[in-house]
């Protein structure tokens, strides 16, 4: 699904980003799934769980934030660190580094052909978008309304230490709900398959109690919505995910049926 050098580069910069941001750092997306599932996955299969190409970071923004509050927010401070200290190129909600696919070094020469460049993105995701957000920060952010549950209730997150820094991880059931929302709308095949892999990994390889998952998901979504999501998946989707996970199509379907 992803080339090994892509996930290796992403992991390298994940570490660099975490080490330079103020803790706790809220990790979302593929790397959040990795931290939840990798220990058990590695024990069972003798290899690391699938990494991620991008780095997804979550931030709390008050819906009625003032100009001064936005200026002093963790999001604004993190953008400063990413673009000024770590030299990511400002790209709105997706600060970027161009990395050479053969040398794994940062690309500064504009003459390097595009097929030799791997775009290393950091996606900045917020729970609320104040009306004055774009005026103050100059771009429209990615918003994930479910993220508010992570910041409003400590029971919806776990704290871990990684790279000697405190990380904030939404619990598996909350990430599963985020995946449920994104999966049916994926227009890129590799992202769709990765979402299926991540859903299975959270169900089977995290410390989530599978027999309680339906009850836990009801806090964030409805059974009907989950069923609609699963209906959007094809046998070919499950087959492709199985090739990545080392599980059969039938095993993935059986485990994922628990969420309904």
Shape: globular
Could you name the ranges where pLDDT drops below 50 across 5 or more consecutive residues?
none
Strand content: 5-15%
Strands, total number: 7
Number of helices: 12
**Structural class by SSE content:** alpha/beta
Q: Which keywords apply here?
A:
260 residues, alpha/beta, seven-stranded mixed sheet, 47% helix
Blueprint of the fold:
Blueprint: H1 4-20, E1 25-28, H2 29-45, E2 55-59, H3 67-71, H4 74-85, E3 96-100, E4 117-126, H5 133-137, E5 142-143, H6 147-152, E6 157-162, E7 165-170, H7 172-182, H8 189-204, H9 213-217, H10 223-231, H11 235-245, H12 249-256
Parallel strand pairs: 1-7, 2-4, 4-5
Antiparallel strand pairs: 1-2, 3-4, 6-7
Helix pairs in contact: 2-8, 7-8, 8-11, 11-12
Please tell me about this protein's structure.
This protein has 260 residues and is of the alpha/beta class. It has two domains: 1-170, no CATH class; 171-260, no CATH class. 47% of the residues lie in helices and 15% in strands. It contains twelve helices and seven strands. The protein has helices spanning 4-20, 29-45, 67-71, 74-85, 133-137, 147-152, 172-182, 189-204, 213-217, 223-231, 235-245, 249-256, and strands at residues 25-28, 55-59, 96-100, 117-126, 142-143, 157-162, 165-170. Strands 1, 2, 3, 4, 5, 6 and 7 form a seven-stranded mixed beta sheet that branches. A hairpin with a 2-residue loop joins strand 6 (157-162) and strand 7 (165-170). Helix 7 (172-182) packs antiparallel against helix 8, helix 8 (189-204) packs across helix 11 (235-245) and helix 11 packs across helix 12 (249-256). The mean pLDDT is 94.
